[in-house]
Amino acid sequence: MQHFASDNYAGICPEALDALLAANVGHAPAYGDDDWTRQVSDRLRELFATDCDVYFAFNGTAANSLALASLCQSYHSVICHEVAHVETDECGGPEFFSNGSKLLPARGSNGKLTPDAIREVISRRSDIHYPKPRVVTLTQATEVGTVYQRDEVAAIADLAHEHGLRVHMDGARFANAVAALGVAPSEITWRAGVDVLCFGGTKMGLPVGEAVVFFDRSLSEDFAWRCKQAGQLASKMRFLAAPWLGILEGGAWLRHAGHANAMARRLAHGITAIGGVERLFPVEANSVFVLLPEQAQAALRARGWRFYTFIGAGGVRFMCAWDTTPESVDALLADLRSALS
Ligand SMILES: *Cc1c(COP(=O)(O)O)cnc(C)c1O
């Protein structure tokens, strides 16, 4: 049975698994000094069409926390959306790894920050008693399944840079955003002013691992030491790196993300057709948020479905993955229809 709790319930996509197995030959240098790691870094530089600096971490919490820590001193602060993963789901990781840089949550509809909301936080205080804003972090696609348009990213980045702030992007579902927007990855990252991207691999279909991509190479100084100290330097790095080769080759990453998005649209259309269910956010990536009565939730759970109710502003979240089948979507819809009747 496929679940809609999270895209990290899905297994490893075949392209990543093949590449992982293909890397399991003989001996190779450890700690990233291997051909696979070099090749993936080069592929990512090609993908982003720029000479970026690339690192790998085991998960998104570490990638975000260490990337933010590299942009801040301990007396700085990071402006984020109030439902941002860094604020709500990383157990204080960003604050811990930055030795105390404070997160400053701001509001914005559909999970997105706006220049006005950011300007308000930046201009609130400038005295020495307040943690000095130093970074804006955006999640792309957002925690509630919406997507920042290129111009929205650029407007935020322009404002941030005007005030001497850096721009970090939590791209746990970056692939879904790229697939949704149909743009070159560079267009919604460095060309729009993003300084550092945490490019999610896990939810895209890798077994494990995220890439931290520094578009401003001056910001990655000593980042390797930061990773090592945090326990994020894989000694058998080739197994973190090789799966990336598999999904970057031939564009599998983007096909899978596009498929997950399409399954979310199918689910959303089906829910609309059932009627009487309030949808919470525009479906722009691979998740669908709805309000469901308690007894309908219980009925779905009794039939074995798993889903989250603690993400974002509440409601039920259904998340589609690279391998979600139309049949699974339709089976969920059928059970939803009977749960509501
Ligand atoms: C899943 C996710 C992450 C990474 O979470 P880990 O469990 O630490 O890998 C980061 N940001 C967002 C928005 C996520 O959904």
N-to-C order of helices and strands: HHEHEHHEHEHEHEEHHHEEHEH
Strand sequence of the main sheet, in spatial order?
1-7-6-5-4-2-3
- Could you tell me the strand content as a percent range? 5-15%
The total number of structural domains is 2
Distance between the terminal alpha carbons, to the nearest Å? 23 Å
Shape: globular
Work out the helicity level.
40-55%
Describe this structure in words.
This protein is of the alpha/beta class and 341 residues long. The protein has two domains: 14-249, 3-Layer(aba) Sandwich (Aspartate Aminotransferase, domain 2), CATH 3.40.640.10; 252-340, Alpha-Beta Complex (Aspartate Aminotransferase, domain 1). Helix content is 41%, strand content 15%. The protein has 13 helices and ten strands. Strands 1-7-6-5-4-2-3 form a seven-stranded mixed sheet, with helices on both faces. β5 (166-171), α8 and β6 form a beta-alpha-beta unit. The protein is globular, with a radius of gyration of 20 Å. It starts with 13 loop residues before the first helix and ends with a helix.
